[in-house]
Specification:
The complex is a heterodimer of chains A (112) and B (112). Chain A has 112 residues and is mainly β. In chain A, the strands form two sheets. In chain A, strands 2, 4, 5, 6, 9, 10 and 11 form a seven-stranded mixed β-sheet that branches. Chain A has a four-stranded antiparallel β-sheet with strand order 1-3-8-7, with no helix packed on it. In chain A, a hairpin with a 6-residue loop joins strand 9 and strand 10. Chain A is globular and about 35 Å long. With 112 residues, chain B is mainly β. In chain B, 0% of the residues lie in helices and 51% in strands. In chain B, strands 1, 3, 4, 8, 9 and 10 form a six-stranded mixed β-sheet that branches. In chain B, strand 8 and strand 9 form a beta hairpin. Chain B starts with 9 loop residues before the first strand and ends with a strand. Classes of the chains: A mainly beta (112), B mainly beta (112). The interface between A and B is medium-sized, with 25 and 31 residues.
Chain lengths: 112, 112
C-alpha cells in the first residue's frame, strides 16, 4: 500500500512570497489533515477535510493560509503572503475515518 | 491544551535497557490515544493506540499504560535499541470528533 505523498519536500522562499504544498492521501482515505510542526513542538492541526468538505479549520490563519480538496482526493495548502514565523514542517495525514492517521514525510518550509 | 515549548525533554537510555516515556493529556473527555514515533526528516509513525476502556495494551516490545484518574499516558519500550532513537509524541482524541491534540514530545536517545 502506497503511503501519503507530499511535495515538494523542501522549499525556501522570501517573506511576502507565496508557496503551495501538495498532498496525495492513501487511496480510499476520506479524511485528510494538514498540520504545522514548528521545530521542537508537536504537530498542530491547521485544517481537516472529510472527502471534499472542511470539518475543522478553526486554527487555520485564514488571512494568509488556504486549503482545498476539490475532488475529495488530493489537497493543496497555500500560504500567501508568507511570514518568517511560517517556517515549519507542513505535514499531511490521512485516515479512513476518525481512527489511526497515516502521515506523509512533510514539506520543510524556510521563510527568509 | 495545545503543544507548547521550545525545548523537547530528552530521555537518554542505555541500549538494552527499558525506556519509559510519559505524557500528560489535557482533556478529560478524550477517549482514544495514540503514540507516534518521529524520526528526523520523517512524518510521525504510528506505534500503538489505546482506548479509554482499557488501562494497558501491549504490542511488540511496546506497552502503553493509561491512567484516566490523573490523565496520564506512558509508553514503555522493552530492550531499547539504537533504532528506537527518535521523538515520541502522544496524541489524544475524543470520539465523535476528528481532531487530535498532540503532546509536546520527548526525544529518546539510545546510548551504545
Amino acid at each position: 500500500e502506497a503511503g501519503v505523498a507530499q511535495s515538494p519536500r523542501y522549499k525556501i522562499i522570501e517573506k511576502r512570497q507565496s508557496v503551495a504544498f501538495w498532498c496525495n492521501p492513501i487511496s480510499g482515505h476520506a479524511t485528510l489533515y494538514w498540520y504545522q510542526q514548528i521545530l521542537g513542538q508537536g504537530p498542530k492541526l491547521l485544517i481537516q477535510f472529510q472527502n471534499n468538505g472542511v470539518v475543522d479549520d478553526s486554527q487555520l490563519p485564514k488571512d494568509r493560509f488556504s486549503a482545498e480538496r476539490l475532488k475529495g482526493v488530493d489537497s493543496t495548502l497555500k500560504i500567501q503572503p508568507a511570514k518568517l514565523e511560517d517556517s515549519a514542517v507542513y505535514l499531511c495525514a490521512s485516515s479512513l475515518g476518525q481512527g489511526r492517521q497515516y502521515f506523509g514525510p512533510g514539506t520543510r518550509l524556510t521563510v527568509t | 491544551g495545545e503543544s507548547v515549548g521550545l525545548h523537547l525533554p530528552t530521555l537518554s537510555v542505555q541500549e538494552g535497557d527499558n525506556s519509559i516515556i510519559n505524557c500528560a493529556y489535557s482533556n478529560s473527555a478524550s477517549d482514544y490515544f495514540i503514540w507516534y514515533k518521529q524520526e528526523s526528516g520523517k512524518g510521525p509513525q504510528f506505534i500503538i493506540d489505546i482506548r479509554s476502556n482499557m488501562d494497558k495494551r501491549q504490542g511488540q516490545r511496546v506497552t502503553v499504560l493509561l491512567n484516566k484518574t490523573v490523565k496520564h499516558l506512558s509508553l514503555q519500550i522493552a530492550a531499547t535499541q539504537p533504532g528506537d532513537s527518535a521523538v515520541y509524541f502522544c496524541a489524544e482524541n475524543t470520539s465523535g470528533t476528528y481532531k487530535y491534540i498532540f503532546g509536546t514530545g520527548t526525544r529518546l536517545k539510545v546510548l551504545a
